[in-house]
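Thread: "does anyone have the structure for this chain?"

Original post by V.I.:
We have the sequence but no experimental structure in hand. Need at least a predicted one for the grant figures.
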Amino acid sequence: MKRRKVKHYSGIGGQAVLEGVMMKNKDMYAVAVRKPNGEIAVEIDEYHGLAYGSKLLSIPFVRGIFVFIDSLILGLKSLNFSSSFYEEAPEKPSKLDEELDVVSGGHEDTFLMVVTTIISFLFAIGLFMVLPYALSEVLGKYIRNESVIAIIEGVLRIVIFILYILLISCMKDIRRLFQYHGAEHKCINCIEKGRPLTVKNVKKSSRLHKRCGSSFILFVMVISIILFFFIRVDSYALRVLIRILLIPVISGISYEIIRLAGRTEFFLVRLISAPGLWLQKLTTKEPDDDMIEVAIRSVEAVFDWKEFLKDSFGYEIDDSWLKDDEETDE
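Reply from O.Q.:
Generated one for you, tokens below.
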């Protein structure tokens, strides 16, 4: 008889940062970073989110919009912390630095982070929303069927995204980021499969996870194909504007799907999650032991995995288990 796979929802999630991993559990989050000298630095803090305490967070399809925005904000905060260990030695402030300090009221780092976020967001909209639409409009001169053009636009959006991932993965720093991404997933999968959180067990776990942000982005693109297929207007400018304005709606729908995927093993849910898992083969790489250690430190800073295994799987972990595991690795 085939053994039934057991998996429990842990509720933790995170993301890879520069030479590290951020893990979030409810309102607490931790960022663990491997410093240039080899030590691991861990920052633990609280983040409540924009709609903290609001009933909006209990409304399906609406809560996803706030979760998406909060993930961007928290991601930038985590990246800012990790990058601080790899900044070059400070030089004498330039005239531009002094002007920025005046404009930002002494909060230059926060100001630059906000500006960078806005520029990155506009770049993403231009590359993944406007460019596919513009290319499909060019093809529209030769293909008169609007339904076919709508499908082509969606396919172009996915192709451009995959090409973008393949291109940036050639960069050494991005490849290491994808390895830490893999370490993050492996830790979560290790826990949710009921295994003690050790380097040995994490290495054996899958680097693919249904609640991944890569899967979320793919859902966004697929859902946009469906919505844009039915929403049509004559004005070129209005069509572009509608695509931008519908981003929160698409994000809300995508969040509900990814949320459901993380809580059930139903066949249909696994089927629609499959393309996102395939995409993760590009956005995650196998981490080394040092990266796994960093990810484990991040998890343990905000999540009691021993208590989770006791509550969810019914057994307690004592130090002898972990000691035996370390000796086996050696």
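V.I.: this helps a lot. DSSP finds 13 helices and four strands in the chain.
O.Q.: and The chain has a mean pLDDT of 86.
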